[in-house]
């Protein structure tokens, strides 16, 4: 599994022959990528805020993985999209997306849509992406990535996501103000029991400017063994290569 961070919360995820793109928003200072250079098979949207769906219009005709409310909003505002399952998915569900399995989990946040905040996009979410289907039996051969979306700290990370969805690596927001800051994000990493943690959702706007080294110190302070990997914008990182270390 290869992960590419395009700044803010935008990730490209390659699982086998399948290309996923999470929360396309390329109007951020970390990336130089033209969104039209990418040709994802699936676009995953954690919620409908403008800094998470800002470039979804570049991928008209692709398959959206999002709540039905967000899918219909994108269809109304931006064009013709397929949707996983025909109408989207919802919290707790797992869908097969090519070579990937995608499980939607709740995030603690808001979900007013891009224009005005008057329209609800349903429950905001995070995604757990794996190359194997989640089961009650641990699969030591699986590779699993958790994109937490915009969220505050929540005990489901400790009580549900860690023991049952078993992520190897987690991308967690550290920007504070709108999401967790470095301290709470570090607690999340400890609760998730991951091997690697990737800081996201920071330095895009003045209210969320952060030093990721502060996050790394906070993770160490929890006693977690997770390695904090600070990616540069447009940088790729391969999970399978690091799991062999």
Automatic annotation (TrEMBL):
<dbReference type="GO" id="GO:0016787">
    <property type="term" value="F:hydrolase activity"/>
</dbReference>
<feature type="domain" description="Metallo-beta-lactamase">
    <location>
        <begin position="7"/>
        <end position="201"/>
    </location>
</feature>
<comment type="similarity">
    <text>Belongs to the UPF0173 family.</text>
</comment>
<dbReference type="InterPro" id="IPR036866">
    <property type="entry name" value="RibonucZ/Hydroxyglut_hydro"/>
</dbReference>
<protein>
    <recommendedName>
        <fullName>UPF0173 metal-dependent hydrolase SAMN05192554_1186</fullName>
    </recommendedName>
</protein>
<dbReference type="InterPro" id="IPR001279">
    <property type="entry name" value="Metallo-B-lactamas"/>
</dbReference>
<dbReference type="InterPro" id="IPR022877">
    <property type="entry name" value="UPF0173"/>
</dbReference>
<dbReference type="Pfam" id="PF12706">
    <property type="entry name" value="Lactamase_B_2"/>
</dbReference>
<keyword id="KW-0378">Hydrolase</keyword>
<dbReference type="InterPro" id="IPR050114">
    <property type="entry name" value="UPF0173_UPF0282_UlaG_hydrolase"/>
</dbReference>
């Amino acid at each position: 599994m290869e992960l590419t961070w395009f700044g803010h919360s935008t990730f490209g995820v390659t699982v086998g022959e399948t290309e996923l793109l999470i929360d396309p928003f390329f109007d951020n200072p970390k990336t130089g990528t033209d969104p039209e250079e990418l040709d994802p098979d699936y676009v995953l949207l954690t919620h409908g805020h403008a800094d998470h769906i800002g470039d979804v219009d570049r991928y008209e005709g692709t398959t959206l993985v999002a709540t039905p409310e967000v899918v219909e909003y994108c269809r109304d505002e931006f064009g013709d999209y397929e949707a996983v399952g025909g109408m989207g998915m919802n919290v707790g569900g797992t869908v097969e997306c090519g070579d990937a399995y995608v499980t939607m989990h709740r995030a603690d946040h808001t979900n007013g849509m891009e224009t005005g905040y008057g329209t609800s996009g349903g429950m905001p979410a995070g995604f757990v992406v794996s190359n194997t289907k989640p089961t009650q039996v641990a699969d030591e051969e699986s590779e699993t990535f958790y994109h937490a979306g915009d969220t505050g700290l929540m005990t489901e990370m400790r009580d549900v996501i860690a023991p049952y969805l078993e992520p190897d690596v987690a991308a967690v927001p550290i920007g504070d103000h709108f999401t967790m800051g470095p301290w709470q994000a570090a607690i999340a990493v400890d609760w998730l029991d991951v091997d690697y943690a990737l800081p996201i959702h920071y330095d895009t706007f003045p209210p969320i400017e952060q030093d990721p080294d502060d996050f790394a110190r906070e993770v160490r302070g929890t006693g977690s063994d997770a390695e904090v990997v600070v990616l540069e914008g447009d940088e790729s990182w391969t999970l399978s290569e690091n799991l062999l270390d």
